[in-house]
Amino acid sequence: MSDLIQKPAREVVRLLREGAETPTSILEALRRHVAEVDPQVNALPIQFFDAAAERAARLEAEVPDPAGRGLLAGLPVAVKDYNDVEGQRTTHGSPLFADHVAARSDAMVSVLENNGGVPYAKSNVPEFAGGHTYNTLFGPSRNPWNLDRSVGGSSGGSAAALASGSAWLATGNDLGGSLRTPSGYNATVGLRPTPGRIPRRRPAIPFDPLWVEGPMARNVGDVALMLDAMVGHDLHDPLTRPERPQSFLERLTTFDPPTRVGFSPDLGCLPVEPEMRRICGDAMKHFDALGADVVTDCPNFTGAYDAFQALRSHLVAAVHGGLLAEHRSEVKPDIVWNIERGLTQSTETLLWAERVRGQLFHEFADYF
Fold first, then answer.
1. Is residue 178 within 8 Å of residue 151, measured between CB atoms?
2. Angular region, 144: left φ>0, alpha ψ -120 to 50, beta rest
3. Cα dist. 48→52, 75, 79, 148, 170 in Å?
4. CA-to-CA distance for 100 and 104, rounded, in angstroms?
5. Which of these is catalytic: 94, 123, 150, 154?
6. Backbone phi, then psi, for 236, in 5-degree steps?
7. All residues at 6 or more sequence positions from 23 whose CB lies less than 8 Å from its CB, including other chains
8. Backbone angles phi, psi at 8, to 5 degrees
9. CA–CA gap between residue 321 and residue 150 (Å, rounded)
10. Contact 338, 345 (CB under 8 A)
11. Can you state the angle between helices 220-230 and 9-18, rounded to 10 degrees?
12. What average pLDDT does this structure show over 60-76?
């Protein structure tokens, strides 16, 4: 990587705001890097650098003062291929949408653009959803640390772009780990924010809190910067609020270290590789230096997995249930399975899952 490509997003934004770099100059540096590495990684199968360069040039012309170009000041941003960017393809990784071109940017992307972000590529995704990033349109994304390994999912293309230097910031979304899992696979950072912090793409089920949009970056500070640039309100997402929270980036320098930290190697219900147990356990020793007490008890997760499966299937069936009648053979099997489960599970199962979700919430409230 060049020195510029290796810099944290916050440092590149500082250079942009000071006028030491321009949106067009850093976009061109990124274009060269992506051309060199992405043919091996396949993180960004849809690229539109020319359109991004036009947007960057307009930003420079319309806002001559670099410090006035928003929180991101013209920084390029990779957008997950579940989200619309005006004039570009949104495929969802599905042959059904292979030629779909978005008429306008969706709510989350519009907020990023209004804050000085410049979309330049769409990151690879599983078809509609999934934990491994591959599809029949573009093939699999490959882990930059080992090209024979998975990048996870569903925001795997975004995480691989970050790890390979093909993005400073990237978008993701999360229903059951899709921001966090690929970040773990690729040694990057993804944050699942509180529902309502970031506006979603005209949600079909507006009051559902299971899935959220969120920021991805190479480090915690850059994630905080991007979260600041994604927070917003949209009339079509009733979970969002007009008021803005305090800057998350500023908060990183103002909060005190914790006095007590809760840590569980497996949440009492999950298989975990011995090496991961050791690495995470050793990491807890850093809190000793801060004077924090690490406690190893955790809330009771009984029923969590089965309840989530029921609630997820219900949501997937509500959103995608109409696909089966005409396109069943064109939809990947695990999506068909989720839709069918949602359509056939009993009312009793769904009511039980809602009760378990409520119990888990109260367990966590008592724990904290």
1. no
2. alpha
3. 6, 15, 11, 27, 15
4. 12
5. 154
6. -85, -5
7. 16, 56, 57, 59, 60, 69, 73, 74, 75, 76, 118
8. -60, 155
9. 29
10. no
11. 60
12. 97
What one-letter code names the amino acid at 7?
A: K
Q: Is 154 a catalytic residue?
A: yes
Rounded (10°) CA dihedral 347, 354, 242, 174: -90
**What single DSSP character describes residue 330?**
G
Q: Sort residue 14 into left (φ over 0), alpha (ψ -120 to 50) or beta.
A: alpha
25 is catalytic: no
Q: Looking at residue 146, what is its pLDDT? A: 98
- Average pLDDT rounded to a whole number, residues 334-349: 95
Please give the model's pTM, rounded to 2 decimal places. 0.95
Residue 332 catalytic?
A: no
Residue of 141, 150, 178, 313 with catalytic role: 178
CA nearest 153: which of 174, 130, 134? 130
Q: Are 309 and 338 in contact, with CB atoms under 8 Å apart? A: no
- Who contacts 117 (Cβ-Cβ below 8 Å, separation ≥6)? 70, 72, 75, 76, 77, 169, 229
d(CA 347, CA 258): 43
Catalytically annotated residue among 7, 80, 150, 164: 80
DSSP state of 206: T
Both structure tokens of 366: 């008592």
Quick one: average pLDDT of 150-159?
A: 98
